[in-house]
Specification:
This protein is an alpha/beta fold. About 30% of the residues lie in helices and about 25% in strands. Helix 9 links the parallel strand 10 and strand 11. It is elongated. The structure holds S-adenosylmethionine.
């Protein structure tokens, strides 16, 4: 049977197990996103597992706003000694995944297993794959640096050992999924796009009311909010690692992409406003919005403490103040912030990001709280209606 037919039969016609990595605490939002695409899934810590065909994955990677990365599971086997480990790697039909000239990177973790030495496991994996490559006239290259998305035909193989069970997966994303391709300007301490979207999907309920992002930085919350309203696919403006794999169904993916473009709708809610005290942040955010196709969103350079809302109705306010040393040393900032909120924003729905240790001192109706990490910094997001 020729190779194309083998790929069709063994990969395209089959269901596979995929794992969508999400930030911890956002797994259920990931599950809801998949369920809207008619994909059933199981929540695990740090992600969501689902079974489907490649076209299901193509939809998931295009539409999921909360995903950090997608993996395709290749093989799972008991593994407590090196001999069988080596043989199991040789038994995989690597040409169904890797192209002849692929550059391979490894991502190895081991927990609670006899095979625990990660560097040694990586070396063994590389040896086995090298042998496979020689036996099957492939020309695989190997790299140790973790930058596969900058290298042509780069692919990362994930090996996870847990309680003597090895799971081998192929990374389908390359650059993490929160890189959308339209946020060109980045201010200090930006929030990751998938976290911003996850928080909005969770807490932003009245989406037809005014939306204010008054410490906008690079405008991430406004960008994600508009994308949610317009149905702009999160992964429609970038390349992914799965495009480097031998089973990539280009025509199918392009068809899914075209359909997702056709599903984009006009922005009906024009009551968006973003601002920041730093001029270059506002200019950069405007540029990012233009890259998304939105030229007419109102914005201004201004101090939040000087702003008085003047809208027909109360809406949704996002505040992502600077966190870190400077602010921790200035508790007066938060005191002023709470005062300003209850003075001028009573009845507004608030999404406020704070350092995890900060005890919020303003009154809320329907208060919700979620704790997560953004770039290694523990943060809490609190939401509710300001009293
Ligand atoms: C953590 S950053 C926001 C990051 C943003 N969410 C993003 O993803 O890029 C905090 C922002 O608050 C702005 N800021 C600080 N004090 C402010 C004030 N009094 N009024 C308005 N903006 C302020 C800073 O200039 C900075 O852009």
């Amino acid at each position: 049977m020729d190779f194309e037919k083998q790929i069709k039969r063994h990969i395209h016609a089959q269901q596979h197990s995929f794992f969508m990595i999400t930030p911890v605490g956002f797994e259920n939002i990931g599950k809801e996103e998949l369920s809207k695409l008619n994909i059933e899934s199981n929540v695990e810590v740090g992600g969501v597992e689902f079974i489907g065909k490649l076209e299901d994955f193509y939809k998931a990677t295009l539409y999921s706003r909360v995903a950090t990365r997608f993996l395709m599971r290749v093989k799972s086997f008991k593994s407590d000694s090196l001999g069988p480990f080596f043989k199991n790697i040789l038994s995989i039909k690597w040409e169904y995944y890797l192209k002849n000239d692929s550059t391979v990177f490894f991502h190895v973790t081991s927990r609670g297993s006899k095979l625990y030495h990660q560097r040694m496991l990586e070396e063994k994996f590389r040896d086995a794959l090298s042998e496979y490559s020689n036996l099957n006239s492939m020309n695989l290259n190997f790299e140790t640096q973790d930058s596969e998305f900058e290298i042509k035909n780069g692919v990362t193989i994930y090996l996870r050992l847990e309680d003597d069970r090895a799971t081998i997966s192929i990374d389908l994303s390359g650059a993490p999924n929160f890189k959308r391709g339209y946020r060109k300007f980045i201010s200090d301490a930006p929030i990751r796009e998938n976290l911003a979207s996850g928080l909005l999907l969770n807490f932003w309920k009245n989406r037809e009311k005014p939306f204010l992002d008054l410490m906008c930085g690079s405008g991430t919350f406004t960008l994600e909010a508009i994308s949610i309203l317009k149905n702009i696919p999160a992964g429609g403006a970038r390349d992914f690692s799965f495009m480097n794999l031998s089973h990539y169904k280009e025509a199918m993916f392009k068809h899914t992409l075209k359909k997702s473009d056709e599903d984009i709708i006009e922005l009906k809610n024009r009551e968006f406003f973003f601002s920041d005290i730093v001029e270059k942040h506002v200019i950069g955010s405007r540029r990012n919005l233009v890259a998304l196709g939105e030229k007419s969103i109102k914005s201004a350079v201004l101090d939040f403490f000087e702003f008085k809302p003047n809208f027909k109705e109360r809406g949704f306010l996002v505040l992502n103040p600077p966190y870190g040393k400077r602010i921790q040393e200035e508790p007066v900032f938060y005191k002023e912030l709470y005062k300003k909120l209850s003075l001028d924003f009573k009845g507004w729905e608030l999404l406020l990001l704070l350092p995890e240790a900060e005890r919020i001192k303003t009154n809320f109706q329907n208060k919700n709280r979620v704790v997560f990490e953004n770039g290694g910094i523990p943060i809490q997001a609190v939401s509710g209606i300001i009293e």
